[in-house]
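User: Predict the full complex structure for these chains.
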Amino acid sequence: MAAGQKLYPRATVKKIVRAHSKRNVSKNVDVLIFLDYALFLQTLMKEASINAKQAGERGISAKSVKKVTEMSLAKFKG
Amino acid sequence: MSTSRSSRELQPAKLAPNPRIAGTSAQQSRITPRNSDSDETIVNAVAKETPWRTLNRLANIPRPTTPLRRASSVGPPSTRRSGRRTPSAQARTPAAQRTLGSAKRPIAITPHGRAAQRELDQRRAGFTPGKDRRRSGRQQRETPSGILRALSRQLAPKSLPIIPTPQGPNGPTRLNVQSRDDLDDEPDLERPRLSLPMGEDEDEDDSFLVPPRSAGLEDENFTIQSVELPRRAASELPPSRLSRGSFGSVRMSDAFANLNDPGMVGREFDGSYLADNQFPDDESPDMEDNTALQGENTGTLRGRFPLTFGRESDIRPELLTADDTETTFVLTVPRRYPSEEGQPEESLELPDLDYDLELGKQSEEEELEDSSDKKLQPQSSPKGPYGDVNMQDETQLDSEIVNEQQRKVSRKKRVKVSKYGIQYPSLPAGVVKKLATTFARTAGNSKAKVNKDSLEAIMQASDWFFEQVSDDLGAYARHAGRKTIDESDIVTLMARQRQTNATTTPFSLAQRHLPRELLQELRMVPPAQFQKGRHLERVVEEED
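Assistant: Here is the predicted structure of the two-chain assembly.
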């Protein structure tokens, strides 16, 4: 993965989670949350690429991503 | 014993000849059933000794010898029983009789025992009348119903049928007449009442249907507003879809807000328009306008009407008082549209006229101005200018709405509001794009590119994801009675997401997906508290 720069803005992730859950996020949890997000994104992209291939698209279109979004979100329902 | 033996011995002897004869007879009968007399005699002879009969005989033969059981215990009852039996009873199968006999009564050994049994039977008969009924017809006749029947038979010839009328009419006639009068009055009144709903639909339809109609009108407003939804969806499609999952973003309300700004124009305009609608004469123009609008309308046009319906009351009088004719409408529409001023005044309308003149409807407006009838013209002649203005305004409004929505979307990207009313940012697009491209490459095509649209979709998906995950985490923390989201929560979440299992720990995942510095952060976690501590140590070891 990206070496030099920071991978993601940790404060942003914390803010997002705090806003949605109205609870404070303890230290370093955001890393795991981001890890989970990375897993989700991996799943999403994998499914999207599969969908795009099935649809015969070149690259990944927004349509395939949207199609797959719901399913992958359901996968990551806690 | 001996007889049974003999019968058993006889059986094969008898059975043996039978099949032969039967076989021959069967063959002959098949060939010539009725022509040969000699065959018939043979057949009759055979018929007397059919296997069925032999079996019956065999069944009957052991009957006298059955005392096998009873012979040892008591001689006489068994003999008596056998003596009692009638040939018809013998025809029954022995097994059934045996069971019946045994079931019916155990064998009475001594005369005292028999007396006792009789007593018992009588008592049983007293308890269970059904038995008596079966056995004796007399007792059945003595049932209360039978007694009553007999009594009725005796009384029937003596008794005369009651004739109610002869004495009745003298005394109570007047009463009856009065009651009849009442009845006469009543049936006249009541019968029609009962029949009214059936027959007189028209009169009472009004009374009955008025409330529903009023409700229907209100409902119409609502329904039209609900019809508004497709309009929102059409104009707002991308944002609405994107915001579907997020409660916080509240795009529906935003949609309302969007409509409100440009809707001011349409609203007032439509308010007058609707006011016109309520006049009976305007139905046809309304229909035409509607059709015209529907012909060209986008979703927004439909949406406009409901809004106008909702708020028409405030605006209508102003328009009626303030503006003379259609021109007023024409004027008002453009005036507020560009200026977006809150309240119209007559003085302000003149510049609006100029504005419309600029638009190129000078001739029409001038004519309309010349014919200054306040109420009639808006009603009678709204069609031409109305429709045109409507279309122009609507189109303009559409474009503006779209623009505003786009603006809002862009604004939304920066600031979203969660369901708790807390603003939150979304992950920077660059980060998401980088991650997404790397994952897309690992997923399949090596040179996959994430274009702008798909990046937007991914961003939206990630927003939803964060919302969902945060909800879950918050729920876990709340369940645990904590006010902060802990590591245990996210670990639980990942386990529930089936991202981690016995073989894959969150730290192995982290090692796979996260850069080293973030792993360092994870390692900072106090180890002993959680089960994760082990994993942490292991990770450390692995890395060492």
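Residues 55 and 496 of chain B are 77 Å apart (CA to CA).
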